[in-house]
Design brief:
The protein is built from twelve helices and ten strands. By secondary structure, the chain is α+β, with helices and mostly antiparallel strands. The strands form three sheets. A five-stranded antiparallel β-sheet has the order 7-3-10-9-8. Strands 4-5-6 form a three-stranded antiparallel β-sheet, with helices on one face. A two-stranded antiparallel sheet has the order 1-2.
Length: 341
Amino acid sequence: MLSERQKLILSAIVDDYIRSAEPVGSRSISKRGDVSFSPATIRNEMADLEELGFLEQPHTSAGRIPSNKGYRYYVDHLLQTGLLTNQEISQIKHELVDRILQIEQVIQQVSVILSNLTNYTSIVLGPEIFNTSLRHLQLLPLGDNRAVAIIVTNSGHVENKVVEIPEGLPISEIEKTVAIMNAKLTGVPLVQLRSKLYTEIASELRKHVTNYEELIQSIDSAFQSESENRLFMSGTTNMLTQPEFKDVDKVKAFLDALDQTDTMMRLFLGAQEGIQVRIGAENSVEAINNCSLITATYSLHGKPIGTIGILGPTRMEYGKVINLLGYFSRDLTKILNRWYK
């Protein structure tokens, strides 16, 4: 349990580090108007906070930075979200309500507005991405090593895509593959199709179909198209402006992860109603273990149907982002319920 003095010092360090991206020293903390302790007292408390795992000392500097544990304590116990500015509210209302008429445009525009307001990466999952499931799959050969993949969802949506198939693959094996997939994947949410394709389906096809690996890759491209129609991302390069991402290898791993739709959607699996904050290694994708992801759900008739997310460095403006997501979540819910009474 932290003392009130330790809480105040931890909060001050997180706030200063979010603003400056530089290790915070005791002298700079002592100059704050809301801190009345001497530099020596602050240094002692900083040492204790480091020993408890809330702070880290990145190099020989006397300054400290928050650890993931420190950010988690800050978000759970110390964060004050404040209010949006009148200018921010006006921008949201103007772009979200006055200019947009169609639901897909709303989702895309939400993504753009959020990345512009935060300078982080925004990810918005379109309505029903988790609730929409596969009803039926067909694969119709066209000749010339091509086929049409037809995906029908439980909501009645039909997606057609021409895919490449292995040369000389017998019709009987295509039919066998489709039968296995319909037996195994009917009723599976779209967000889980690609992961199951490479686990359960691959294991089953291995026993019955030659060249099954090439066939799986063909069908995967059709599933990818269906998923991408429901995920919108903006500001993917915003993270390159953050000091934490000067390392080329780190940037490459991060951008590669953003390019993989199923990887991004996996981040949202298990998302609960309301606002959630996942800091550092709490995220399930290793490439973003240096980031924080804050998500909020939006609803239709009381049922969550989509998720808005902001991906930024662990040195994120948590209060501002939580406040923005809360505002967007409420407004998007109001718009959807007004359109679909």
